[in-house]
């Protein structure tokens, strides 16, 4: 009887396994269409088809794995009472973007934030959260304002049915967003900001870093929705702006975007503005000598209180006066809604990352300034 010793048994087992693997390979469906990039391509086939996968993108590292970050933060002016609306917004922002990139949040308020507010906002993110109180001089009447006159004009605007016409806190808010949020001590360490408000929604996955995009492409101002302002809120804003331009010609570059905000070369304002509840911007721009001079000029004129100048037209007119086309970016890929208007990307390629209804996109409706933007920048 042949005896197989333990040393003889091993080679036999190994051969058997190899034999089975070879059989399996030849019977397998992969055998005839080798996909291994290193395999020798058969004759008559262009080699690069084998080396390059059909969709290169899927083999790229996601952008967030690169740990380089901009010095940037979300900035959210809000009240304690808006906590629940804000949580809804933050959870969407985290899901669409920030759970991957972890940019910090700066919350600002004219009253101290409650512990409840702090716990229930910080709980939604791994990122740093900071809570700041707005100094009195940034949320009140400057000394040159005639308060009696302001009260009278405000009540009148209310009676005339102007939106937020008789609302004082709204005016402090607009003045703060125009001239002060970027000077708050908690903001000083940052170079870029993304403004967020309670209740806004985000519909599209954002897989790259928009702050780095701004920085690397020398963009100073980014937006998603543009529209027409109510003229009754800014009766003298353009006259005041024209006087400013006359007094400070050194701040007005030749090839600016004035045609975006005026249909007659600066004669009158066409009411177009970027909706400032969404902004991604360069803080250096808002802290620049020209923007500072413009804000102070407007503040002295008193229209934040005697009229109801909004931070959106103020920022937008500054963009039109001081920046050129290549410094302003339309974030088409950021699906965004601040009721009642939504920007939803309409191209099929961008829609793949979104859940908004492109049929409800605001861009090409009557009150949007999208067509103007296209005509000026193309
Ligand atoms: N802390 C604080 N935040 C305010 C106050 N008023 C407005 N805000 C914030 O300022 C931003 C703009 O105010 P909103 O009331 O949304 O103004 P709006 O977007 O023009 O108007 P809505 O259509 O009502 O949203 C929001 O982020 C508010 O939370 C206020 O009195 N105190
Ligand atoms: C990470 O991003 C920075 C900034 O965009 C870039 O300079 C750097 O080359 C990137 N690093 C890698 C490994 O891709
Ligand atoms: C003033 O406007 C704010 C919105 O910024 C609103 O929440 C508030 O109810 C308004 N106040 C009054 C007295 O109308
Ligand atoms: C826009 O302005 C920047 C300076 O901030 C300049 O570097 C750039 O060349 C300008 N671009 C155009 C198209 O004028
Ligand atoms: Mg709002």
Keywords:
transmembrane helix; binds guanosine-5'-triphosphate; three-stranded antiparallel β-sheet; Glycosyltransferase family 15 protein; alpha/beta; binds magnesium ion
Helices and strands in order:
Elements (H helix, E strand, L loop, with lengths): L5 H22 L20 H4 L20 E6 L5 H19 L3 E5 L5 H8 L6 E5 L13 H13 L8 H12 L12 E4 L5 E2 L7 H7 L4 E3 L2 E3 L8 H11 L10 H4 L10 E3 L4 E4 H4 L2 H13 L1 H4 L4 H12 L5 E3 L5 E3 L2 E3 L4 H4 L18 H8 L1
Parallel strand pairs: 1-2, 1-4, 2-3, 6-10
Antiparallel strand pairs: 4-9, 5-11, 6-9, 7-8, 11-12
Helix pairs in contact: 6-13, 8-11
Bound molecules: guanosine-5'-triphosphate, 2-acetamido-2-deoxy-beta-D-glucopyranose (NAG) (3 copies) and magnesium ion.
Keywords: Membrane, Transferase, Transmembrane, Transmembrane helix
Protein name: Glycosyltransferase family 15 protein
Pfam families: Glyco_transf_15
Query: Which descriptor suits the 3D outline?
Result: globular
CATH architecture term = Alpha-Beta Complex
Hetero groups bound?
Answer: guanosine-5'-triphosphate, 2-acetamido-2-deoxy-beta-D-glucopyranose, magnesium ion
CATH topology: Spore Coat Polysaccharide Biosynthesis Protein SpsA, Chain A
How much of the polypeptide forms β-strand, as a percent range? 5-15%
CATH superfamily: Spore Coat Polysaccharide Biosynthesis Protein SpsA, Chain A
| Helix/strand/pairing category | alpha/beta
Could you give the order of the helices and strands? HHEHEHEHHEEHEEHHEEHHHHEEEHH
Count of runs of 4 or more consecutive helical residues: 15
Low-confidence stretches: 29-51
Keywords: Membrane, Transferase, Transmembrane, Transmembrane helix
Protein name: Glycosyltransferase family 15 protein
GO molecular function: alpha-1,2-mannosyltransferase activity
Transmembrane segments: 12-30
